[in-house]
Design a protein that fits this description.
Blueprint: H1 10-20, E1 26-30, H2 36-50, E2 55-59, E3 76-79, E4 97-102, E5 105-108, H3 111-122
Length: 133
Amino acid sequence: MEDKGEVLDETVLTDLMKKYGKAITCICFMGGDAAPQEIERLAVFVRSTTRNRIKIAWYSGRQNMPATCSHRHFDYIKLGPYIEKLGGLNSAKTNQRFYRIKEDEMIDISSCFRKAAANSEENGREIFSIEYI
């Protein structure tokens, strides 16, 4: 299979933000574990360019936040690799954690996913939203 992606940089982000305008409410970086400083740099760019209008998230497979990066540049951070037998964030057995960043603190809100999943199962829905975020 041929790689058809492109390098995510300031130019690509700027083009996306111009193209979709206010329809963008959050930019979520998926992965980037091999270059966490690059993810942080791009988060700082988005934050300064949009003057905090757009939420910034990072879904990382790392168990912990890299010591070389600051969580302060993000609004949400998901840490932990997906391990099938443990399930995702909606599983009580998951190894993954989802944090909301508020005033320099990482607040673990992982349980919101389990509550939302339980509510959707009770109501016969497969899709759920996180009301606590």
